[in-house]
Design goal:
By secondary structure, the chain is mostly helical. The chain folds into 2 domains: about 40 residues, Homeodomain-like (Arc Repressor Mutant, subunit A, Orthogonal Bundle), CATH 1.10.10; about 150 residues, Tetracycline Repressor, domain 2 (Orthogonal Bundle). It has 8 helices and no strands. The chain starts with a helix and ends with a helix. Pfam families: TetR_N. InterPro entries: Homeodomain-like_sf, HTH-type_TetR-like_transc_reg, HTH_TetR, Tet_transcr_reg_TetR-rel_C_sf.
């Protein structure tokens, strides 16, 4: 229980104040324990930070993956559109994790840059595999024309990355939804048979 509370406090404080601006003593105080108690669960500040980062990335990917597990009878188009829709749903349901990951993927502390990049790429591989399955499904369905799958996967992941930035730019749900729909329809019209 204490370990989870430490991770929750760390997620929020690292997200708000940054890595350098967050002291372990602050995290401990928020949870109601003494700073040395953190060392019962984590080696050091970096270990706590990277644990929170990896878990935030994995929770995002698991959220997107639920789409393929729950909706196996969906068309490839619906799966791909569902991925961009679920992305914004994750941001709404998990704002602290979303901001934390975005902040540190874009602006990692210099000494953690390689570690963060490696953790990101490991988590991103799960999403890449899901998108590849949906693209291949679309080709098999005859909905997506034959073309190199990797190009389509890369284009779709770039679409998702762009939409993730748009989510944080626009506070109007209507404007963001319009942008999602327009971007997705443009992608789909470019790949369909």
């Amino acid at each position: 229980m204490t370990r989870n509370k430490l991770k929750e406090a760390a997620l929020r404080l690292f997200g708000e104040k940054g890595y350098d601006g967050t002291a372990l003593s602050e995290i401990a105080k928020e949870v109601g324990v003494k700073t040395p108690a953190i060392y019962a669960f984590f080696e050091n500040k970096e270990d706590l930070f990277m644990t929170v980062f990896r878990e935030a990335m994995l929770s995002y990917n698991a959220f997107i993956q639920e789409l393929s597990e729950e909706k196996q009878a969906m068309s490839a188009r619906d799966c791909l559109y569902g991925a961009v829709s679920r992305q914004s749903e994750f941001y709404r349901q998990h704002p602290e994790a979303s901001m934390f990951v975005l902040r540190y993927v874009l602006f990692p502390p210099d000494f953690l840059k390689e570690t963060i990049e490696k953790a990101f790429l490991q988590a991103d591989e799960l999403l890449t595999q899901a998108v590849e399955r949906w693209i291949v499904q679309g080709i098999e369905e005859g909905a997506v024309r034959e073309q190199p799958v990797q190009q389509l996967v890369d284009a779709f992941l770039n679409l998702m990355d762009g939409l993730s930035m748009q989510y944080f730019y626009y506070t109007s749900k209507e404007v963001y939804t319009r942008k999602v729909n327009n971007a997705f329809e443009t992608f789909w019209s470019g790949v369909r048979s």
